[in-house]
Amino acid sequence: MSSIKEIISQNLKLDDSIKELIQKKINLKTKPIGSLGKLEEYALKISIIQNTDSPKLENPQIIVFASDHGIAKEGLSPFPQEVTFQMVMNFLNGGAAINSFCKSNEIELNVVDAGVNYDFGNIEGLIHSKISYGTKNILHEKAMSKEELEKAILSGYKITDKILDNSNSNTIGFGEMGIGNTGISSLLMSKLLGLNLTETVGRGTGSDDEQLMKKISILEKASNQHKTSNEPLEILETFGGFEIAMIIGGIFAAAKNKSIILIDGFIVSIAYLFAYKLNPEIKNYSFFSHLSEEKAHISLLKFLNQDPILKLNMRLGEGTGAALAYPILKTAVGFLNDMASFDEAGVSNKE
């Protein structure tokens, strides 16, 4: 793909002609119909994505896109901007929560420098795709140029496509790292859905009441600084982050490959929201990992008509929710393939 237009105009519709066959297979397992609840829904959806009655989850991957935001230096977060590059180093050294969760669930972790305000040199283990050293300060100018936005989306697409191809994977989750990106995501949500910032801005990395009010004030000033339409790409160019743009590209690459897509928490859900506005068919491939503790996530999921797999009171990001939800989907596929039918088990079914 060589342009955003080509990426978002892909035909991502699924052939669901196998649906009746799969539903019958699920219903004839040795259990009352519907008794495995959401697992039955997940098994059915995965089977339709893969167009088979014997689906498999193979070589799962998680990609964490990291980037900085110019406005973070205004005090948008209680953490300094330097934490972004420090956490990237932590990922590469295997010391973060996402490293632990990936290890526990046999998921391969990939870390991308989308626009961190730090020079990593040629450090091994990092996918180097820096657009710039963070976005611009949106209190004074647009976050990025049209050219930078297109480059970020295309980079996310190509990186994801290559990872899926090289690993022979059909299951991928997305995560992020970037001080200030919870606030930016709240602003993006308010702009795209026409909501007041007080409805979308939460405590992020742990803001107290005073910090929360400061955060809202900063974002309101940034919001009022720019006049935008409700067109997703214009909003993203004006306020967004390189990591969010790359995740959007990654989502489209995963859907093109007919991969199972695991959406993490609030920030990745915002990337999904923009991708969904550009092409609603991405919903066919996507599973929402968990309900974040971030304030606006529940209203966002309601808007998208999505039911998250887990609710663990988490708000870390990094793709941690995706890593934890993966075993649930693996279990759903497992029962469909391994559980006996009434006939196979010699168990009497109800009349």
Question: Can you put this structure into words, describing what you see?
Answer:
Strands 3-2-1-4-5-6 form a 6-stranded parallel β-sheet, sandwiched between helices. Helix 2 packs antiparallel against helix 3. The chain has 2 domains: 4-55 and 336-345, Orthogonal Bundle (5,6-Dimethylbenzimidazole Phosphoribosyltransferase, Chain: A, domain 1), CATH 1.10.1610; 61-327, Rossmann fold (3-Layer(aba) Sandwich), CATH 3.40.50.10210. The protein has helices at residues 4-8, 19-27, 38-50, 83-92, 97-104, 146-167, 181-193, 197-200, 209-225, 232-239, 242-256, 266-278, 297-304, 320-338, 342-345, and strands at residues 61-67, 108-115, 126-128, 171-177, 260-263, 286-288. The model has no long low-confidence stretch (mean pLDDT 95). It has 351 residues and is of the alpha/beta class.
Give the topology, please.
Elements: H1 4-8, H2 19-27, H3 38-50, E1 61-67, H4 83-92, H5 97-104, E2 108-115, E3 126-128, H6 146-167, E4 171-177, H7 181-193, H8 197-200, H9 209-225, H10 232-239, H11 242-256, E5 260-263, H12 266-278, E6 286-288, H13 297-304, H14 320-338, H15 342-345
Parallel strand pairs: 1-2, 1-4, 2-3, 4-5, 5-6
